[in-house]
Structures are given as structure tokens and as C-alpha cells.
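Our collaborator T.R. sent over the components below with a one-line note: 'Predict the complex.' Nothing else. No constraints on interfaces, no templates requested, no preferences about which chain binds where. So this is a plain run: every listed entity goes in together, and whatever single assembly comes back becomes the starting point for the next discussion.
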Amino acid sequence: MATAALRSQVAAKWHEAFNRLNRTEPGISGLVSFSQAWNIATEYLHPYDISDPMVAKKHDLASVKAAFEIVNRSRRLPVMLETFLDDICNQYHLIIRDITQYLAEYEQSADTSVMLRLVFRLVEWYRAWAPIDELGPTIRGAYTLTFQTQLFSILPPAFVRGFKALCASTLVPVAQHTPQMWEAFEILGLTDRYEGIIASVGYERIEDYVRETCAGKWDAPCLEGLRAWMTEQIVPWMLPMYAKGAINTEDARGMLQNVGSRFDFHMNKTLCDLRTSEIFDIIIDFPDSMGALQDLKECLQRVDQRASLVQSLRKANRKRLLHPGADTKLILSQYVATIKCLRIVDPPGVLLFKVADPIRRYLRERPDTIRSIVANLVGDDDSGDSLVDENEPIQPLQQLETEDYNDPHWDPEPIDAGPDFRTNKPSDVISTLVSIYDSKDLFVKELQVLLAQRLLAITDDNFEKVEKERRNIEILKIRFGEAALQVCEVMLKDMSDSKRIDGHVQSKKASIVHPTIISRHFWPSLESSDIVMPGQFQALQLDYAKEFSTFKPDKKLRWLPHLGTVHLELQLEDRTIETDVPPLEAAFIELFSEKNIWTMDELIEGVGAVDRIAALKALITWIDLGVLKEDEENTFRLLEVTEEAAPAARTAPTAIEAPTVTAAQQQQAEQMRLYWKFIEGMLTNLGSLPLDRIQTMLRFAPGYDQTVEQLAGFMEAARREGLVVGRDGMWKLNR
Amino acid sequence: MEQLTTSLAPPRANPKPSVTNSSQQVAGSVAKRLGNELMSLMMSSSPGISAFPKSDGNLFEWVGTIEGPAETIYAGLTFRISISFPANYPYVAPAIKFDTPCFHPNVDINSGAICLDILQDKWSAVYSVQTILLSLQSLLGEPNNASPLNTDAAAVWDTPDSLCLIKLLSDKLTVTTVFRTQLMKHYRPVKDAA
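Returned assembly:
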């Protein structure tokens, strides 16, 4: 039973198949014509070796088409397609052979034209194997897909490298054959598959170009030029790839927009990276690096690289600026340049705030920062390279203002501003520098010290210089306020008073001494000295003092004999020497008028007490002038008759020229030492105390005027030295 | 024994009324004097003695610290004392007592009262806080057993040849050990309470 059923089923199937192939032709003629057509068709489709000229065959297109028609009518086309695609896979070794051969050649010559030939060759293969268009897009599509799949599966990594080189080679200059090449890429499906690589060629080209043209060129903005270059060079290159099938320029522009902005972004990013890496030097070059800063500003708006800019600049500062080898003045000027530069790049000042913080902290630790700033303020800089822009209007110091809640132009703080960011209204540079420290008192004190030094250095009634100082002080008054500079005012007045008093005293009794009379109370403490001027100098001083006390009976003249200069004329047996020397030198040579040979100890005794190094220095001055000679160590002889100058036996010991005025900081340290005694005393007896209690207890110390913040800083310093320990706001001695 | 009872009375319990009346005007100059004394005490570097006003409002109450002198039985111990200046200081000696219990022939172990001649009849206006502190420090090493406030301590101390230097002789070692035991029994280390 089953057999019968099976049989009938098989018979039905067979009939159906037969009818399909035989169509409605009589007998088996349909079947015969089908098998002929099948043969022709497969023959035609068979992937042949194009490099074998023998196989190249001519087909009668009409009969081929007829054959396909028959196959199609028999609905055997899918089967034929399958066979065809299988054949392609089987025959692909031919292509592989070619590829291997070309790539080997390329590897050897590294000539991109080889790659180009390979691509064209692949196109040849593709064309040769392609089925006729009449078979419809489905078959065509299936073929392309199979061909490309096979191709991509066998392309070795070497091909990618070559491909990239080929793309790059067409970029500069844009080669003649570029359109054909793009077409070939398109046919082979390479554009889609290797889009990343093609884009990276563009990116790399942009990077190279930016580095080539813009590195180290900071005077003019580069961005405009770069954009023009992009339009001229990059856009034509990417036109065939990204704007294929564009009908008109309008169309092309639309297609390019996406990729164009990507390239533009990349250009901005590259430039931004470059400038970020150069930022430290750009700041050094300011204001000649204006262009670069404008570029950077524009780039930063497009590319979010602010954080890396800050990081890079901070790193560069740490490495190149904030180390013991850098001069404070240099750090200051770089800081000022940084302020100016970052204001251009980022007007709200967030970047500046972040970058400036470490610099300011470092400067605060430097002992001579204030001195440098003040020296610059009064134009004491020999270099003349003033921190302050001369065109900048002089204005009062700006205090950090708290936020004004009624400000109608209030802007929220920028998004990357930290919590401790303070809106730094574009204040002037001096205000910014002064704000490194918490109070301007330090500056005023240092200013006094500096002014004292400069005033005392003025000799010979050089009143112009005094006038210059006065002008300086007037300018500084605008900045620091009248009250703060009162002491300076007194000092200047002392100068003119001295001149007046001297004039008066001289009119009573002419003297060659012209003292500068200063009010001790207002001048910074001057270094005292125990020198007693010997011989005629003392007589001169006494005479003058007598005249002075008759003129001003309520005042007492106290000499600071070690300051000033003495104009001397030495009459020796064979020569006369005229010279200007410091008082100590004069005192020594005066002693030599008593006897010709002195030992060092005798000399020192003769002028009271004086430091040996200072004494030696004074004596060496005379040795250098050929007036004295050191016969044996520490014994000096006056050369009445000049002797052949022996090579200087001694060179002046490198004693640092002691500043005549104790620096304000030193004074403060001195004071703090006194307060420390009190703090130590109270902590010994009262155990641990909170800071404010210490502050109020320091009332017992005479002249205590520190703020609680200053005290906190001091305690912190004491803690670092291991003198005290602080816990929970309580301080106690560390023992 | 007679002296003992007299000195047991609080040293400055009865200041002369005539002087206190005029204290109002004197207070300023006293404060100035105390200020100067504080300054010179802070500036001097006498090891082991120190004193400071208790609070910023009142210059008349001070706290002092005395470290036991080296090579005495008190070596290594720190004693806190309180100093209270009368309004007519320096014409009258300040009242001083030990806050840290001190086992010493001339110090009352309970009240901390001190028997020292310069704090009583031998007081002079030329003395200062610093001299007092120095005297107290030396008193620790050399007690005056003629007028003991603490008879127990004096008794222990007074046992034959009681120079209490540990390093001398072995038979004195017992004496010193006895004294030291007593001393340590009463001693309370100084705490850092403000």
C-alpha cells in the first residue's frame, strides 16, 4: 500500500519537474532546449582567468540572452545563481594569486602606483566576472556581495597599509587619476569598508599640516589660514568619496556638511593640542604671541579642552617655573604674563584662577616676593622690564568684593569653575599681585624699607632723586591710600628738612659734614653699629652736633657713623689719592695717620667694635687702591711710597653686602620671636588653649598687633617645627 | 612648733585695710608693674620656671609652673602653683600655694601653703615673680627643716645625714627611697586642663 502511495507521489513530483523543464513544448524538445540553454548560460557565467588570453572567449550575446530567458522561464535561475556563486568561490584563487603578486611588489618598492594598479586589476576581475545586466539587480547584487565578501576575507593586513599609503599619496597634490581611483574603490566596496582608514588619512594630513605650519608661529592667528587650506586641499580630495552622486555644488555642500565639520573639529583639536603643549612658551613670548592666544580662544570654544590646558600649564609651571632655580622676579613677570594671556583666552577668569593658584601659593612661600613686587612698583628694576603696563591707568587697589546680589548684569559662574572660584573682576595687575597676600600692610612695610634704603643711598644733595622718590610715592598713594603711606611721607620730609637744617648749621659754622637727619620713630630700624669714628672724624661730628643742639635744643643728634660716604684726599709722600669710601674705610685710614703699621686686631679696636669680615673688606679696598699692603697675615702697612703692586694676596671674602635696613620681614620675625615666648609661657602654665584665647592672652605682650589669621599662620608654622601640637582647635606645647 | 602654727594661717588673709582703700588708683600702676614682670619673665630664659596670667581679664591671678631641680629628689616632677597678687603689690608679697600636692617639709600637703621667709616677713618690693619662682625651685632641693609645715616630711627628711642625693651612700638610699615613696604617693602629674 505504502509503495503505491509513494510511487504515485514520486510520479507526481517527476511530472511536475518535467513539466517545468519541458514547459509546454511537445515531447522532450523543451527539455533539450533547456539543457542547451543551461550549458550556454553556465559557460558564459563561469569565472574565467582573465590573465589567460586563451580562455578569453567571445559569446554570442543574443544566444546567451535567449539561454537565460529559457532558464528563467524554467525557474531554474536561483539554482544557476548558486552554482555561479560557488564557482566564484572556487575560482577566487586566481584573484588571490594576483593580489599576492602585487602586494609582494608593493612591499618591495613601496610604490603606491603598484597599489593603484592592484585596485584597477581587481576592478578588471570584478567586471570580467560580472553577469549581464539583463539578469536584474538581484543577481547583480548577489554577485557583488559575494565578490566583495570573498575579497575582504582574503585581503591581507599588508593591503590595508598599502591602501592607506595610496589614499595619502593622492592627497598632496591631488593626483590626476583620483576620480578613477575613487570610482574603483566604490566598485570594490572599499570606500565603505575602509572609511575609517580614509578618514584617518585625512586626519593625519591635517595633523601634519597643522604641526608643520603652526608650530612655533604665534604672532598671527593660524586658524583662518588653516580653514582656507582645508577648502583648497582637503575638500576637493574628499569630494569624490563623501559627495558621490552629488548633482550640483549645493547638493555636495549638504553631503559634505557632516564630514566637513568632523574634519574642522579635528583641525581645531589638533591646533588646540599644539597650542596647549606650547602654552608656557606662548606666555613667555607674550605679547608677541597674540595670534596664538586668539587661535586658542577660538579652538577652546569648539573643543572642550580647557581642563587639559589647565593641566598642561600647571605641569609646565611646576616643572619650569616654580622651582628654586627661578628668580622671583622672573616668576612674577611670568605670572603677570599668564594673567594677561589667560584673560585673552578666557575672559571670565576660570582658567586663570586654576592656573594661578599654585603660582600664588608658591610666591607666598618665597621670602623676597614682596620685595620684588615693591621694587617693581617703585621702578627699582634695573632691567626696566616693568611688570606693570605703563599704559595701565593707576587706580586704587581693589579689594575682593563680595557678590553683589543687586547686579542686573550678574552672570552665573562658568560651569567648570570650582567651588572656591572667586569672580575676579578684571582688576589691574598690581591689585592681583598685592592680593597674593592677605593684607597690604606687608607691602607698605616693605615699601618703607625700600624707600629708606633708596633715600639713604642718595648722596651729594642729589635732590632730583628725592623728587623722583616723591613722585613715586605720590603714585603709590593712589594705589595704597594716603594713610598707609604716611610714614613714607615723613621720611621724604626728613630728607628736605635735613637739607634745610644742614643749610642752617653750615651758615653758623661751616662743616664738611652733611648729615641726613632722620626721625628714628618713622624710619625702619637701621642696623646699628658700634663704630666710633677716630681722630678728625670724631671731632667733626662733635662740632656739628654742638651746632645742631643750639639750633634745635629739644633734639639730640645720634650718629649712625657706619652709614654714608666720605670723600677723602690722602696725601702721601709721593702721591695724592682722592676717593669716595664708606666710613669704615675712612676710619681705618685715619688710624694709619697715627702710625704706619697696624695689625688687624689693633685696627678693629681703634674703631670700636666691628665685624672681622667687614674690617677685612674695608682694608682690602685700600690694598686695591695701593695705599695699604698686607705684609704678613693680618698686619697692614701704609705705603707712603708706592710699591710695585703685588698680586692681590687676598680677595675680598664674599661677604654679602649687608643691607643697611633690616628688611621688614626680618623685623616681623624678630617680633614673632617675642610673641612666641609669650605663647610658650601661657601654654606651659595654662595647658592647652584655643586659638582665640591665645590671641586675647597675647594682649599681655607689648605692641602685639597681629590678626588672629596671622596668629593661626604662626601657630601652624610652629606646629611644622614641632614646637606645638594642635588638636580639635586646641593648641598645646609639644613635649 | 610655734612657727608652724603661725605660718599655717593663710599668708594673705588680712591685708592692711589702709592700702586696699587706695587700691583704685594704684591698680593701674600695679598692672603696669605686673605687665613688666610678665615681659621680663617671658624674656628671661630660666629653665624650669614659668608663670602666666590665668585669664586675659585679670592680671592679678597667675598660674606658675616649677620643675623639680635636677639631681634632687624632685627631679623630673612638675609642680603647678597659683599666684595671687594683692592690690598693693609689690608692697605686699603675693599669695602663693602649690596646686599640685607636694610632699615637702615646708609645704602643706593639703592646702599647698608654703613656708618661705621671703613670702612672709622677709618680703621686699624688689623681689619679683621671677625671684619668687627661683626661690621656690631652690626650696625644693633645700628644705628649711627649722620651720616645717609638713612634720612627716620633715621627719623623714631629718633622719640622720639626710642629704637626699641618691648617688652618695648606700645607707642613705633607704632614706631617700622612703621620702621618694611618700612624695610619689601624693604627687599628681600636671594635667593640660586649661
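Summary for T.R.: The CA atoms of residues 469 and 514 of chain A lie 20 Å apart.
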